[in-house]
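A common beginner's mistake is to predict each chain separately and then try to dock the pieces by hand. The better habit, illustrated here, is to supply every component at once so that their relative placement is modeled jointly.
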Amino acid sequence: MRKLFVAILVSVSLVGLALTQVDINAQSGITGETVSLTSEVLGQDGGVDINRAKELYKAGQPLVFNSNGKLYYVLNAAGNVDAKNLVRNAGKQVTIEGNVKSSNGVSYIIATSYK
Amino acid sequence: MKKILLVLLLSGLLLACGGNENKDEPEKSLSEQVEDTANEMAEDAEETANEMAEDAANDMAEGAEKAVDEVKKKVGDATTKFTKGGWTGKVVKLTDAITGNYEALNAGRVKELVMAGQYVGFLTNGQFYMVYNAAGNYDWKNLARVVDQELVTIQGKVKKVGGMSIIMATDIGAFVQHD
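With all components supplied together, the output reads:
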């Protein structure tokens, strides 16, 4: 009986530990949405759905990531602007995991995953 | 912090419930053991809750500070600067401004990059700007026109949008040295 009780306690603690770890990982991501930089520059709502994002991408119009009013360029691991994934994830709130950096006045995210 | 606390809690629980029984002391009944363990867990939970409350308070204070900064930034954004002389710099690829390795660009390459979703802008005084025309369109075409110039001068207004630096250009041309 006692062993069972200990086993339950250990299991509960381990589950708690695992959940905490998941929470910490989630906090490392940035949540927001794909926006049209041009619309943001014009003071309009920059939010775009996937079709509009495709149109803008094909027209060479910049797409960026808006998280709580702050805009980020998003790069992939190869160091290129990750416009394709911004298009794929347009029209919904998405969490980008990766590293946020700044250089020459440019704030950017090197994305490792989109959720 | 939470992780460390949980590891400590787990270790404490394992030790508390471990097999190192003292034979000299009378063995406690199961209900007493459960009560003791429950008390320990309650104490630990209280401690963890206090830590979490403290962390939450710190987070809230940090959030409030950020909100104040945000408001200040927005107020700052409302005022755009106008320059008569303009800015002198170079047309560069966004990712080159980040890495510091600058590719030699020409008009064809600029078009190719922009159509592939890679942005080209203007670097001056160590600051990268996306360039828009007066109509509010991304003005990569005029950047492509002057990309082969050693130095380029842009006139217009500078503004910050969501932390990004933007030039609303009224004129883009090759830098001309005035004596």
